[in-house]
Amino acid sequence: MSTDETGQGAAAAPEMAETSPAVAHRLIQLITPAGERVSHPEFDFWVKDVSDEQLCSLFEDMTVIRRIDVEATALQRQGELALWPPLLGQEAAQIGSGRSLRQDDFVFSSYRENGVAYCRGVDLTDLVRVWRGNASSGWNPYAINMATPQIIIGAQTLHATGYAMGIQYDGADAVSVAYFGDGATSEGDVNEAMVFAASFQVPVVFFCTNNHWAISEPVRLQSHIQLADRAAGFGIPSLRVDGNDVLAVMAVTRLALDRARRGGGPTFIEAVSYRMGPHTTADDPTRYRDANELEDWAAKDPISRVAALLERKGLLTADFQQHVRDQADAVAHRMRKGCTTMPDPEPMDVFRHVYSTPNSWLDRQQEHYARYLASFGEPAGAATQEGAR
Amino acid sequence: MTRMTFARAINAGLRKSLENDPKVILMGEDIGALGGVFRITDGLQKDFGTHRVVDTPLAESAILGTAVGLAYRGYRPVVEIQFDGFIYPAFDQIVSQVAKLHYRTQGAVRMPITIRVPFGGGIGSPEHHSESPEAYFTHTSGLRVVSVSNPQDAYTVIQQAISCDDPVLYFEPKRRYHDKGEVDEGVDPAAALPMGQARVLTQGTDVTLVAYGPLVKTALDAAAAAADEGISLEVIDLRSLAPVDYDTVVASVRRTGRLVVTHEAGQSGGLGAEVAASITERCFNHLEAAPVRITGFDIPYPYSKLEMHHLPGLDRILDGVDRALGRPNSLSGLEG
Q1: Cβ contacts of B105 on chain A, cutoff 8 Å
Q2: Is the separation of the CB atoms in B112 and B164 below 8 Å?
Q3: Which of A82, B7, B300, B327 gets the most CB atoms within 10 Å of its CB?
Q4: What is the SS3 assignment for A305?
Q5: A318 and A383 in one domain?
Q6: Which residues form the domain of A382?
């Protein structure tokens, strides 16, 4: 059930007519759910260079991250991970946008953008480090130009905007990209981020994946208009794209990035998709949503439609399919191995990196805890007083 | 040495930091053409431009949140929170992001953000303009919290805070903004007394009196008044509120055997409780009396006609000194 199907966008009462109700965006689509490539007068341009080979590569990426997602969910069920936030159904939104970015662009995401992290070149083991409880950040943000995924809903949109202010001050042409969900659009931080981004006209892209559910709350609880329409109130141009169409997502992301690089300021993208799985492995969506809805969206699956398109083009050969399966299995195997062989942190690591400078309060607590641990006759861990900073 | 106001000293320190490091950026509401509601940033936007001294839209969470993004990009943002009571919309960004990103990223991302907060009362303002919210932040790991009490420290410590790789809340006693003092602008902040250390302002033998920010002046006045009665107070300006420089306070209390700690903020769960507990732990065998807290009450900041009842003044502090000394005082005869 997408917002346009519920008719919310057109629900303005007659007496409200003078306030010019939001005009519903047309959903930008380049590949139909049946796998038909449809032309678009404006957006074909942005993907005209995408070759058959690249289309195959996008298919492979989406298949691999779905496999990663399945593997991580299995790892959680097997007790190897404490929790996992599945991205099932959102592969096109993540791969289409993630593959549009340049290395020097910087991503500020939520915890569900594991597919984007994959595009940024994340080490597979780093994807599960946080969820295994071994770290609060899986990776060094500067290694892949992607911030630590944010758990506080929407907070990262401000970081993205601030980073974009820095890009602007530096005179660089990189772009900062904020990923967030439909629920986040209700947060003050997201709205404040759009105010700042518009005021300073900084190179930031607000990429909102409308997956229709914020845990158990449907998008209609967050907004009575299409999310893309909210941007207009901030003076930010917006695009509403079929988030399950990898090519269309790529097209709109490229347009938004290009606008930002050329000094055109922020763009808001609403990628309309669906969270096919639970919010996290701890969630039970059967308590709050209709199975029919799931069925409707299964018919719009992002990977099946590209498979159908490749089939039409004669590219979905047995060899290619085998190659993709092998690739997905290999990646899943590497991730599983990295996960299960990850060394546990040392006890004294608990004190590390709270500050980058010496801190008398913490140094004392650390010293006392080391003595406490030592009182059991066991080594207190590798961390030294110096190292614990 | 130049004689200047407290406000001017902060301004001069900010100017120095802007000159010395191109990554330093000032952000806040009304800090540009107006120079801030207290004129602390007076003239800085004119001299350094709108990209170094940034007037922001009115959204405190965004001021801090964008500062986080700038820090990610390698900048050293110095943000002004217009009044103490306006900091709460930014609380999440300060506590969940600014304070924790270094830990979260295992040291990969530094947050060298300075948060300037005019704080405290005594200026006759309506609600939200006179608060002392420092304990919320001293309780948050990952932050450093300082407060300055005189123009020289204001000038030096703001530069130390800005050059610190950890986030620092810099609490400015707004009712002292117009106080004047000698400032040596040639001081090297790296060679000066470190930001984390307390300073003993008057040597004394009878009672250690710990204060910070706006009450340091009150504490010094109290010491002068006590001296007239033959009581010798050792006044310590805490300067750093997180972490507290306990070495300095412990050394003093081990000599005097008595502690009075004072602040404008409410008593329960306040910094005075932390100081009293830590000093009791570390100096128990040296204490001649229970530590005494002379603080604001556990009330919302009152309307201005009543604020002088809430704010610890010289006489209330001296009453606390009497209590520490076992002399007749307002609570004589009460148990506990």
Answers
A1: 136-137, 140-141, 148, 353
A2: yes
A3: B7
A4: helix
A5: no
A6: 347-388
